[in-house]
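Sequence of Fatty acid desaturase domain-containing protein (Coptis chinensis).
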Amino acid sequence: MQGCVLTGVWVIAHECGHHAFSDYQWLDDTVGLVLHSFLLVPYFSWKYSHRRHHSNTGSLERDEVFVPKPKSKVSWFSKYFNNPPGRVLTLAVTLLFGWPLYLAFNVSGRYYDRFACHFDPYGPIYNDRERLQILISDAGIFAVTYGLFRLAAAKGISWLICVYGVPLLIVNAFLVLITYLQHTHPSLPHYDSSEWDWLRGALATCDRDYGVLNKVFHNITDTHVAHHLFSTMPHYHAMEATKAVKPVLKEYYQFDGTPFYKAMWREAKECVYVEPDEGSHNKGVFWYGNKI
Ligand SMILES: [Zn+2]
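Predicted 3D structure, token representation.
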């Protein structure tokens, strides 16, 4: 329960990063820094990489995260683990540790020519103008970690695990799941630079249904297409915007109402790699496959 509510808090911090929380950039950044640091997310570091995800969605070369591999580069791992026990293990590791692994080691992120880490101000993800803010984000994480350490010393480690550790793991798991399912679906294409453009990428996203949790998550689950079209829009307008864009986008609007636990299983099974479209004119359009 706390995990779900904290995921809602996470969503507000994400919105601060899009300058969608208030009219004042400093207020957005202050609230975002406090909320995200509390959830051990480096606020500015992720704000910048997340913005780049929004500018490059669906691009095989430049999207920041959930970038699928071509068939030729699929690892031995995918081959031997795409069976029920392997999938349970992969999903468990992805949901429990995927978020920190992405932040620290760029796991499932785009290709960089050297080691990429969200905590490293001098890493390849950031430019000179951003480096100071990456340090500030690190300081936020450090301060919260120190506070947690003091709390553990005062109240005991098991108390901290129950009150903070487990809810945080639930937040991380939902976050990875929500974003994974928004950008991974058997009928969503990816594009290389010959075919990619911003609008095509923004429309290669999918709205999902989490039942009662839609509300708890401030509807980021079922309004993601609209979020990619209008990312500075606050979450409380996103449902209205989604209703308005549906009749305009018609078949270009993607929604899949499969329950999330079923969708997670199906996508993990079917979306293993991407390969070019069969049609000779569409060499830069890629679709998911799983036949290794
Ligand atoms: Zn976003």
